[in-house]
Amino acid sequence: MSWLTGLGLAELTLLCVVGALVFAATALVVLIVAIPPQRREGAGATATAYMTVLGSLFAILTGFLISSEYSTLRQAQNHVGVEVAGASQLAYASASLPPVDTALVQAALVRYLNAVETSEWSMLEHNPAGRSRAADELSSLSQLVFSYGPRPYAPSVTTDAMQSSLAAITESRRQRLVIATQQLPMPLFVLSVVAGLALIIGALIVALRSGPRYGLVALGIILVVGFDLSAILGISSPFAGPFITSVQPIHQLAQEISSGGYLSWLVGK
Amino acid sequence: MAGGEVRGVVALLIVLLCGVLAACGGSTPTAASAGCAPADRDCVEVGIGEPIYLGAFLALDYASGLDVLASVRLGLDYLDGAFDQNAGQLLGHDVALIVEKDECSAISGRIGANRMLIEPGLLAVIGPTCSGSAFGSADRVFAEHNVLVVSPSNTAPGLTNPETHQRTYFRTAFNDAIQSSVVADFIFTRQQITSAVTVSKADDAYSGQLAEMFSRSFNALGGAVEQSFSLGPEDARSGVARTLAKDPPGAIFVSLQTPDCGEVVSAIRATPALAATTIVVAESCQTEDFVKLLGTRANGIYASGPDFSSVEKNLFYRDWYLPAYRQLTGNEPEGVFGPSGFDATALLLDAIRRTAVVHPGGVLTFSRTQLRRAMLDVRGYAGLSGVLSCLPTGDCNEGARIAIYRAPQWPIIKGDKAQPVFSQFKTLAQVGLTN
Q: Which residue of A has its CA nearest to B31?
């Protein structure tokens, strides 16, 4: 399943739409053979009665899935936000240390943020359960931050603030990793697919009864089913595929810190 | 199919389309970085596994040079956040320190600088120790190659005079314009002595400029510098005492270095006619050699130098740096420029971090121009030696507290228990240098 959710927007959409069209074409041939012209009026009336039910079922299922997966995506993005806020707070708190220590903490922080961007994001895409360089950098950062606790020259207010910022970073990173390992609820997705296919069949039966004029409506339903399924698959993995959690806030903060934006002794920061 | 049914199907289509539209959104990360072109002379590239080269151009025969070397080593040791005698890494690379001996002369400044430049990857230099080897010599050679220089112990005013300043030169040491002004204040205002003479070394930027600045400050206060001795290598060191014995001045300001300083002051002390004359020596005279040579005859001699009382109040210095210094060298700091050396190292490392362009795999590129600009961005760096702000003229120590100590209460003898008899904080602006 992960290969599917990792496809790009164009590939995924094409796959789902073409899949829906191929299914519809096959179903149309079967329906033409299976339903003789004289029985199409009755079959069409029956299908029309089911269309609303099937359509609603499909809309509810896909809507629920899209909404749920979008919430997960937002949640992942929120955790990135909390992580960035914690990192920013750590950078600010470190400014109360002697400048030589401030520079060290911020350099270690930048190393962690860069590792998240360059190493962890791709790991989350391909192997969410793996271990990235960011884990090692976070470990180094933690050791450094906690080493200031017992130092007599480091104000306890500062070391406390640094430690709580680090805790926020660690916690939000862990939650981000947990989200990355979550997968699309397969039974619901299968149910959506079945509802969508049934909807296509219903639309084709109605089109058979009403003639080629209504074929366009059936085509529209086929396309929408394809698009909907591709949207669910596209949004289902927050770190892979076309709709992913943005790493831009982390990149931006790393840039700001490394260019000295959080150093108190720089002008024009 | 009835019209109502068609409307129902169209409505259904709209509902389904909404589901698709709701899924739209997201963004992709972007990354952009720009380095200097590898063929550019301004560019320094540090390949994978290669060290970052820094230079230390220090007078290893003098306490001040050894003191600074220890502080530079401590600065590199602290790259991993601990004084554990294991040098840390900078941006994932080791730092290789190229140590060159400063012989404290203009010629040695040129030779030493050129020798250090044999390493094309040399990014920056800490030093030289002596103003004489920097002024118009090493500072010029390094500027021609666009190599950043930060001296922790050069104090000659000419080095940061806009007319003679070399653009890549910076210093964390105080400017002697401040020291000379405080000494003039001490002699004229505190001791109420109105006549003085100066003794300096010919062709030595440090010694000559300090004496000259003292004369200006003393004359500006209303005093009179009656004579200025400029000793050449062939001049007898006892000649000053013999000359002054005929008409003793109120005060003698000696801006010589060891061993000249000890020899001249020893001769003055041995002249009964000068027994009542106040002698003030510059910080370069505060050495163990001077104290050994004069013994108890040093008592009563005044020495100017940075006031360490504020440095010793710095908790990082007292509780973290000093124990590490003792562990590294086995001694107490003997010079006065160790904190400036640590600050110079820290400022350089900070500038390097801020200007490095990190390429995939860990290759680093630096622009020497950007490195210099990074130094110019420094404003209000709370270092061990004071608050540092780097001006375009190269002065990073905008103000300094200078103390006058009376032997045997010298820091070199009494350590941190030495009590100054006079102490003043002055800024460059206060001594007429608004650069």
A: A251
> What average pLDDT does this structure show over B295-303?
94
- Other beta carbons within 10 Å of B50: 15
Q: Is B111 exposed, middle or buried (0-12, 13-18, 19+ CB in 10 A)?
A: middle
Q: Which residues of A touch B15 (CB under 8 A)?
A: 55, 59
d(CA B105, CA B233): 12
The count of other CB atoms within 10 Å of the CB of residue B98 is 17
Nearest to B203 by CA among B279, B128, B107, B59: B107
Q: What is the ipTM of this complex?
A: 0.84
Chain B hits for A76, Cβ within 8 Å = none
Q: Which domains does chain B have, with CATH numbers?
A: 43-173+337-397 (3.40.50.2300), 177-306+402-427 (3.40.50.2300)
Q: Which residues on A lie below 8 Å from B30 (Cβ)?
A: 248, 251
Contact B20 A98 (CB under 8 A): no
Name the residue among A48, A220, A235 with its Cβ closest to that of B13: A220
- Indicate the SS3 state at residue B229: strand
Q: Whole-prediction pTM value?
A: 0.85
B 302-361 near A (Cβ less than 8 A): 315-316, 318-320, 342, 346, 349-350, 353-354, 358
Cross-chain Cβ contact B79/A114 below 8 Å: no
- B354 to chain A: closest CA residue: A259
Those residues with Cβ within 8 angstroms of residue B228's Cβ, 6 or more apart along the chain or in another chain: B197, B198, B200, B211, B212, B215
Out of B13, B23, B27, whose CB is closest to A66? B23
Which pair of structure tokens corresponds to residue A111?
């190393």
pLDDT digits (tens, 9 = 90+) for A198-234: 999 999 999 998 887 788 989 999 999 999 999 999 9
Query: If you ran DSSP here, which 8-state letter would residue B124 be given?
Result: E
Find tokens 């001296």 and name the residue: B151
Report yes or no: B387 and B381 within 8 Å, Cβ to Cβ: yes
Would you call A248 and B78 a contact, using CB atoms and an 8 Å cutoff? no
Chain B (229-288) residues lying within 8 Å, Cβ to Cβ, of chain A: none
The DSSP result for A87-155, as a single string, is: HHHHHHHHTTS-HHHHHHHHHHHHHHHHHIIIIIHHHHHH-TTS--HHHHHHHHHHHHHHHTTT-TTS-
Q: Which helix (H) or strand (E) covers residue B424, if one does? A: strand B420-427
Across-strand partners of B281?
A: B254, B303
Residues of A in contact with B315 (CB under 8 A): 152-153
C-beta atoms of A258 and B353 within 8 A: yes
Helix ranges (H only) for chain A are 2-5, 9-34, 40-94, 99-115, 121-126, 133-147, 156-181, 186-210, 215-235, 248-258
At residue B9, does pLDDT exceed 80? no
Ranges of each domain in chain A:
2-258
